[in-house]
């Protein structure tokens, strides 16, 4: 079972991932606008290619942050884990002749 501090850290991490995702989406939108404007005014120029490169960088970072956030939210482990009894299972006959499984600690 996770402790309170682990739960708190996971909430902080999710909040931080959301902020980073928002920042990267704003950067991608900004560089898309700059690339479109530069492509319109100076097609084929170095400034246009740099704008497209930075758009690709921010788009890649945005996709990475979105995938991490999705995996983080869908990660199992939020519920307590049931652990099996220690030792290996053995059987012994009961009074009625049925086999009964019990766990003996090794």
Q: How would you characterize this protein structure?
A:
This protein is mainly α and 106 residues long. The protein has 2 helices and 2 strands, in the order ααββ. The chain has a two-stranded antiparallel ribbon with strand order 1-2. A hairpin with a 5-residue loop joins strand 1 and strand 2.
Topology:
Elements: H1 4-41, H2 46-74, E1 89-93, E2 99-103
Antiparallel strand pairs: 1-2
Helix pairs in contact: 1-2
What key phrases describe this protein's structure?
2 strands; single chain; 106 residues; rod-shaped; two-stranded antiparallel sheet; mainly alpha
Percent of sequence in beta strands: 5-15%
Helix content: 55-70%
Indicate the mean pLDDT. 78
- How big is the Rg? 28 Å
Strand/helix succession: HHEE
State the total count of DSSP E strands: 2
Derived structural class:
mainly alpha
- Structural shape: rod-shaped
Helix count, per DSSP? Answer: 2
Q: What separation lies between the terminal Cα atoms?
A: 24 Å
Low-pLDDT windows of residues = none
* Major β-sheet annotation: 2 strands, antiparallel
Strand order of the main beta sheet, please? 1-2
Short account of what is shown:
By secondary structure, this protein is mainly alpha-helical.
């Amino acid at each position: 079972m996770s402790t309170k501090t682990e739960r708190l850290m996971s909430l902080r991490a999710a909040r931080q991932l959301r902020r980073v995702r928002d920042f990267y989406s704003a950067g991608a939108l900004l560089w898309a606008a700059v690339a479109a404007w530069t492509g319109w005014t100076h097609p084929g120029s170095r400034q246009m290619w740099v704008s497209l490169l930075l758009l690709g960088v921010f788009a890649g970072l945005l996709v990475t942050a979105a995938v991490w956030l999705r995996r983080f939210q869908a990660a199992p482990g939020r519920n307590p884990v049931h652990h099996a009894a220690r030792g290996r299972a053995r059987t012994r006959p009961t009074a009625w002749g049925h086999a009964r499984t019990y766990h003996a600690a090794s």
